[in-house]
């Protein structure tokens, strides 16, 4: 599995929560900060403005996608001048305060929601993302993302047999294609940042190797050989771009993978230890407690075996 796919499979928990919202102007809705989630806004039709807390407004038109990787609070409105009238909305809450409204011809329709992250799921790849990612799906090279937006539009505005299963699957694709588009176009500087790391052939080769085979007895020398560099230059480049030295990242990824297996499977601890490169349950338990400050068994008992099912709902909002 490649690095981005691997990261998303590990840090996500449950299904994305979403709501189709029809707005009738003038309108403005405040969204609360949700630090443990990646928020998303898709403009299905019409236009609006997203005003991040403490930042300049971002104007959006039909087809635009916005990701809020760090769950930043913001206002979504028809105009920056329109004040929010409803109480703040938490897109991860069970009880959305977005009320139904009788708006036969709304001026704007948006798909709003959030992807919840595992408590320990702040992978540095996600931490490296900006507060707001704005993507114009009509731009060149974003045809795949535009297709997903069109399919979400069709499924959410004309529900059919299987829509409740289709929406979460399409939202997973939306997150993947949006992040791929950002990493393909990002320029975070000449030497640092995960976008740079994934474009650097040597560092990317080492990362892919760690993710493909976390149980392998990697060393700085063996990873440097994959990168085509000597040890010191490789270690320096890896640390500057990834944010951790190679061996520390390897240990961190092994523990992150072990945490996912503890949450999502009933595999015995000995099997999990073997799958992430530890020769005994005791060795895994020591490393796991060092990272998470809790023994693996107690960590497992704090999570249900199956991820919680997230529901999709259509709502309308108006004055």
Structure notes:
By secondary structure, this protein is an alpha+beta fold. It has two domains: 3-186 and 310-317, Regulatory protein AraC (Jelly Rolls, Sandwich), CATH 2.60.120; 194-301, Arc Repressor Mutant, subunit A. Helix content is 42%, strand content 18%. It has helices at 3-11, 124-127, 143-157, 163-185, 194-199, 201-212, 220-227, 231-242, 246-264, 269-275, 281-292, 296-301, and strands at residues 17-23, 28-31, 37-45, 47-52, 58-61, 64-68, 74-77, 108-116, 133-136, 312-317. The chain has a six-stranded mixed β-sheet, with helices on one face. Strands 2-7-4-5 form a four-stranded antiparallel β-sheet, with no helix packed on it. Strand 4 (47-52) and strand 5 form a beta hairpin. Helix 9 (246-264) crosses helix 11 (281-292). The longest helix is centred in the middle third of the chain and has 23 residues, at 163-185. The chain is globular and about 65 Å long. The model is unreliable at 95-102 and 307-319 (pLDDT under 50).
In short:
The protein has 319 residues and is α+β, with helices and mostly antiparallel strands. 42% of the residues lie in helices and 18% in strands.
Summarize the SSE layout with pairings:
Elements: H1 3-11, E1 17-23, E2 28-31, E3 37-45, E4 47-52, E5 58-61, E6 64-68, E7 74-77, E8 108-116, H2 124-127, E9 133-136, H3 143-157, H4 163-185, H5 194-199, H6 201-212, H7 220-227, H8 231-242, H9 246-264, H10 269-275, H11 281-292, H12 296-301, E10 312-317
Parallel strand pairs: 1-10
Antiparallel strand pairs: 1-8, 2-7, 3-6, 3-8, 4-5, 4-7, 6-9
């Amino acid at each position: 599995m490649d690095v981005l796919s691997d990261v998303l499979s590990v840090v996500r928990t449950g299904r994305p929560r979403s709501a189709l919202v029809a707005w009738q102007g003038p309108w403005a809705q405040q969204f609360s900060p949700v630090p443990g989630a990646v928020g998303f806004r898709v403009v299905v039709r019409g236009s609006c403005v997203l005003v991040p807390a403490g930042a300049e407004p971002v104007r959006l038109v039909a087809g635009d996608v916005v990701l809020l990787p760090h769950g930043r609070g913001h206002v979504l409105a028809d105009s920056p001048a329109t004040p929010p009238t409803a109480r703040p909305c938490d897109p991860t809450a069970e009880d959305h305060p977005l009320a139904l409204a009788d708006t036969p011809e709304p001026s704007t329709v948006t798909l709003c929601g959030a992807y919840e992250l595992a408590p320990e799921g702040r992978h540095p790849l996600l931490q490296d993302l900006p507060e707001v990612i704005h993507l114009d799906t009509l731009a060149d090279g974003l045809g795949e993302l535009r297709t997903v937006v069109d399919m979400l539009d069709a499924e959410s505005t004309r529900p059919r047999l299987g829509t409740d299963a289709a929406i979460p699957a399409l939202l997973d694709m939306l997150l993947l294609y949006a992040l791929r588009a950002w990493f393909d176009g990002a320029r975070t500087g000449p030497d640092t940042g995960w976008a740079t790391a994934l474009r650097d052939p040597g560092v990317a080769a080492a990362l892919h190797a760690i993710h493909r085979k976390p149980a392998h007895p990697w060393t700085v020398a063996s990873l440097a050989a994959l990168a085509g560099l000597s040890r010191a230059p490789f270690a320096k480049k890896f640390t500057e771009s990834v944010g951790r030295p190679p061996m520390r990242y390897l240990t961190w990824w092994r523990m992150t993978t072990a945490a996912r297996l503890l949450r999502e499977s009933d595999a015995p601890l000995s099997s999990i230890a073997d799958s992430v490169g530890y020769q005994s349950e005791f060795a895994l338990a020591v490393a796991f407690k060092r990272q998470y400050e809790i023994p693996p068994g107690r960590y497992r008992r704090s999570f249900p075996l199956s991820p919680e099912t997230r529901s999709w709902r259509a709502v309308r909002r108006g004055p």
